[in-house]
Fold this sequence. Notes:
Elements: H1 3-11, H2 15-21, H3 26-49, H4 67-80, E1 85-90, E2 97-98, E3 106-114, E4 125-133, E5 138-139, H5 140-143, E6 144-152, E7 156-161, E8 167-171, E9 177-181, E10 192-195, H6 204-215, E11 219-220, H7 226-236, E12 240-243, H8 256-269, E13 273-275, E14 285-286, E15 295-298, H9 300-310
Parallel strand pairs: 1-3, 10-11, 10-12
Antiparallel strand pairs: 1-2, 3-4, 4-6, 5-14, 6-7, 7-8, 8-9, 12-15, 13-15
Bound molecules: 6-O-phosphono-beta-D-fructofuranose.
Amino acid sequence: MGEGISDYTKFCVDLRRHMWMAGVELDLRRLIWQIAVTGKYISAKIHESNRKLAGFKNIYGEEQLALDKSSDEILKNQLQFSGFVREYASEERDQVITIGQGQEKYFVTADPLDGSSLVDTNLAIGTIIGIHNGTILGKGRDTMVAALYITYGPLITMVYSAGKGTHEFVLNREGEYVLSQENIRLRDKGDIYSLGGLRRDWTEAHLKFVEYLEREGYKLRYSGGFVPDINQIVIKGGGIFTYPALRKSPEGKLRLLFELQPMAFLVEQAGGVATDGNNPILDIPVEKLGQRSPIYIGSRFEVETARAFLNEKQEVQG
Length: 318
Ligand code: F6P
């Protein structure tokens, strides 16, 4: 073996080893591992569907399942045989389904393929997972034990937290998830902003907040994919993402269970903040599956500043 290769192996920490070293409980470790592996299957499905970009046609002329539906099916099937999951709720289903035997402890929520409309433009997309102990009802802070997202971009990366910090892994050419950033920390103040919704639909207070960011010279970074947009804040170590209340939809667009809670868990574990403009996302009680909420997530300073603008206290200091 060449020296380069042995050095490489020496310094690689794979996902399983990392979770073991971090003291993550055995069943949770196995479940997170299983989900990370499922990301590889979903990625294979994305590649398969992208064959049309390379000029392939569906030779059987069959109606193919939409990619988000087939990703959901892959995830459900994998979790069903994991032995750790009792119930599964997905953005693709309007009901919770029981996939275990009854004695398993985890309830998994999933947005199996967020941003699937970006597939044909070859932008990054992702899978978002929340892992709850027993129930999803109540506050995320009381029910969640772990969260992760997988980004399918030029590389496949996975960011997870089991309540012991937030860590990033990259899927290498050998098919292993290797540690690329341990204990990610968001700065108290960042310099990028990512804004969902149309400007004409924003509330006056939100508009004033955005104008403040613009005056302060924040750089706009918005792809329209929740996973890569949050990933940018996490990996660059600061800034803010918002999908606010809109005039005609005060609950905003994004879903609490499938999108917001997992990202709030990961960002809080990285020292950041996630609110609906006022209250922490993880303190909003879950009452129904499709519940939506506005979100302000990222560095403490920007999220607190948004709160001040939304409450019309304009004496905010830069
Ligand atoms: O929820 C789906 C989603 O595509 C997210 O990934 C993304 O953040 C958001 O919607 C984009 O919404 P809009 O098209 O309104 O900017």
